[in-house]
Input
Amino acid sequence: MANEQSNRWKKWLAATIKLAIVAMIVWFIRGTLADAWRQLGQYDWRFDPVWLMLSGGLYLAGVFACGLFWHRVLLALGQEAGLAETLRAYYIGHLGKYVPGKAMVVILRTGLIRSHRVDAALAAVSVFFETLTMMAVGAFLSAAVVAIWFSQQSLLFWASVAMMLVSGIPTLPPVFRRLVRLAGARKWGPGADEKLARLGYGITLTGWVLTSLGWVLLGLSLWAVLKSMGAAETNPLAQLHLYVASVSLATVAGFASFVPGGAVVREAVLTQLIAPQFGGAAALIGALLLRLVWLVSELVISGILYFVARQHAPPD
Output
């Protein structure tokens, strides 16, 4: 009887915690949407919805490439995570970035992927490894583009280099393994060290390739937004370096700021980079519209994956 009551309390507590997390995410996303929509309402501009839908699709494709890398990291750590459940956790986990701090992303991803096949602690480790790799690659791409095409922007170049080093050095396999061990990996049970040893330079290289592809697709998402406004050319290749550098540097700066969703910071950096090419007003509107497109895309794909993919997930 006591055990039955204890189980009921545990189920009630778990349900309450889940409801509180959902409520928190909804609250902060509502604020992000309302703020972006209010700022857009200050401008009289026409948008082509077809290009906006293409932008959303390109964004989700870019996130997909990074999600593939996270799946590869989980497998390298000896976790039997299916691709579908990994992508489900990855997309939904992005909603956590709109909550202050970065912990909610880790909580969401870990909570959605953990099972008897996936250890929660190693899942959390994989989240940090994937996220830091993504930020390092983004900072590297922006530094390379600024150095070649915008050599007069020395501040942006050195900021990109600094962010690349800060996020990239911890992902070097020996450094990362050392950091995880210092965090108490040996307490996770037998085999933890052996699994961490599987994170080698091959995984790192895979991450750089996949996340580079992801950043290119995110850059094309920005192009599609600007095209929807009639500001960009039909051929994105002519200014692809600008789109990729702008999105990557703005996103990395927003991540480093610890502001929920990188709000304001991301728009400020993005506007500064594309304003010389498209004008200040178009740059600001494009930055705000890009935030709305990405957020709506995340909400749509998360809703689909949460309610549909859950029915086809492997049993725990």
